[in-house]
C-alpha cells in the first residue's frame, strides 16, 4: 500500500515553494491570497519546478478572476471558502485522478 503526501500551505507562497522542493508531495493545497508571495506566483514557481505538480487552490467568494488566473498558472482545481466537504472531496479526487 503506497502512502501519499499532502502539503497544505497557509502561511506564505515562498514557504509553499520551499516545502514543495523538500517534500515533493502528491498534492498541494494553498490559498490564493498569502503574504510574502501570493498563491498564483507560488503556483507558477512550483509548476516551473515540476510541470506535473498537483495543486488545489482555495479562494474566498468573489475571487473568480484570481481563480481563473490560478488555473491558467497551473493549478488543477479550486475550492471556495467557506468549504463544503463534498466539494473539497470532489476536487481532491479530480486533482489526484
How far do the termini sit from each other? 17 Å
Overall average pLDDT = 88
Uncertain segments:
none
Number of helices: 4
For this structure, the quaternary state is: single chain
Q: Would you tell me the structural class of the helices and strands?
A: alpha/beta
Q: Please give the order of strands in the largest beta sheet.
A: 1-2-3-4
Note the run of SSEs as H and E.
EHEHEHEH
Helix coverage percent: 40-55%
Count the beta strands.
Answer: 4
Shape: globular
Biggest sheet overview: 4 strands, parallel
For the CA atoms, what is the radius of gyration? 12 Å
How much beta, percentage-wise? 15-25%
Features:
4 helices; 45% helix; 4 strands; alpha/beta; four-stranded parallel beta sheet; 97 residues
Structure write-up:
The protein is an alpha/beta fold. The mean pLDDT is 88.
The gist of it:
With 97 residues, this protein is α/β, with parallel strands linked by helices.
SSE layout and pairing:
Blueprint: E1 6-9, H1 13-23, E2 27-31, H2 39-49, E3 55-60, H3 64-73, E4 77-81, H4 85-96
Parallel strand pairs: 1-2, 2-3, 3-4
Helix pairs in contact: 1-2, 2-3
Amino acid at each position: 500500500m503506497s502512502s501519499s503526501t499532502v502539503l497544505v500551505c497557509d502561511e506564505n507562497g515562498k514557504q509553499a515553494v520551499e516545502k514543495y522542493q523538500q517534500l515533493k508531495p502528491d498534492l498541494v493545497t494553498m490559498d490564493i491570497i498569502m503574504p510574502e508571495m501570493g498563491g498564483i506566483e507560488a503556483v507558477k514557481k512550483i509548476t516551473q519546478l515540476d510541470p506535473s505538480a498537483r495543486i488545489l487552490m482555495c479562494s474566498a467568494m468573489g475571487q473568480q478572476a484570481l481563480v481563473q488566473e490560478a488555473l491558467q498558472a497551473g493549478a488543477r482545481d479550486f475550492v471556495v471558502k467557506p468549504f463544503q466537504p463534498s466539494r473539497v472531496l470532489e476536487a481532491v479526487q479530480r486533482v489526484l485522478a
